[in-house]
């Protein structure tokens, strides 16, 4: 080996950041001796071990393997059968979809990447929510796109602050990202609020990238509206996957569904997605083969999963009301609760990273700092584990806050 031969990683690639992964994979947490770790950081429903996938889903994959029919390449954008099954699932009376409106991707993240790459050029900006999911920023950092954050209002259960959203739009804006139901906020937008967002998008002629990976995962009294089916003219690229609703994030199968009622997205946009698909030749064929059966899991099973998560989420919400200095925001869906922190009441804790690290050191409860979601004043709890364990975690958080609170 030659001593003067060395190769560096490219600066553009080294600029890529995924803040969730930085915390989960690299941040150092000390534990409190004698207290069992309660890990509530990762939005992975399989971590708690009490939410298995539906047995039919496992059987569908095992059938797919044993059939021997799904070992070869599929179409780059996904097999016709899988895309047809998705078109059927997401069609509504106002928005009838064909398999040509659907592209299979490497998880929902892959769908988001497709949407960003197809719609946005380097130097343009995209409006994304704050607090918001870390992957939007990751995509921007990899594509030299400006991530322009619009405010979600905690006082209105994290609805978009439309005045702020509008003020951030300029001639370089290429799209608006709407995440409903929201990670990390647990919010579910009303029909009216979604219509207001659509009105704004129409006024400025902007397409919407809808991250709907939590689809129907909504708590009692909250209904999910598919943005693409209520939009009359604004083009909507809906991104989703098997990860959360079917509880199998590791299977890495996602999809992008195009709602283009007025034909505003030209054929060249579809061609762009076709070309992007040919970069990596599509997601795993075995899961594609199983997809039609996976999608037909009865809704009642999904509802049972959501009821469990709702019950835990509301337990946390109620219990954390008692924590001095914290304001939990009542969740309406997905699998998270956000808690706003009044740092003026915790003079010995300088910032959000210190908050989660000290909390872990003193209570062995591990949470996600808001900095992963572009906010420095909140923490996120994943609410999928057993109710008793979540109660214990909340009790420890309350005690921690009482110990450090200075009125
Ligand atoms: C989990 C999550 C994703 C990523 O989904 P994958 O299918 O695992 O890529 C995307 N968006 C949001 C809001 C998420 O919470």
Automatic annotation (TrEMBL):
EC number in record: 2.6.1.5
Keywords: Aminotransferase, Pyridoxal phosphate, Transferase
Tagged with keyword DNA damage: no
Cofactor(s) the protein requires to work: pyridoxal 5'-phosphate
Keyword Transferase: yes
Biological pathway: Amino-acid degradation; L-phenylalanine degradation; acetoacetate and fumarate from L-phenylalanine: step 2/6
All residue ranges annotated as the Aminotransferase class I/classII large domain in the record: 37-397
Function of the molecule: Transaminase involved in tyrosine breakdown. Converts tyrosine to p-hydroxyphenylpyruvate.
Catalysed transformations (reactions): L-tyrosine + 2-oxoglutarate = 3-(4-hydroxyphenyl)pyruvate + L-glutamate
Modification N6-(pyridoxal phosphate)lysine, positions: 244
Organism: Oopsacas minuta
A biological process from GO: L-phenylalanine catabolic process
Quaternary state and interactors: Homodimer.
Record-stated family: Belongs to the class-I pyridoxal-phosphate-dependent aminotransferase family.
Domain of life of the organism encoding this protein: Eukaryota
GO molecular function, one term: L-tyrosine-2-oxoglutarate transaminase activity
Top-tier EC class: transferase
InterPro entries given in the database record: Aminotransferase_I/II_large, NHTrfase_class1_PyrdxlP-BS, PyrdxlP-dep_Trfase, PyrdxlP-dep_Trfase_major, PyrdxlP-dep_Trfase_small, TyrNic_aminoTrfase
Protein name according to UniProt: Tyrosine aminotransferase
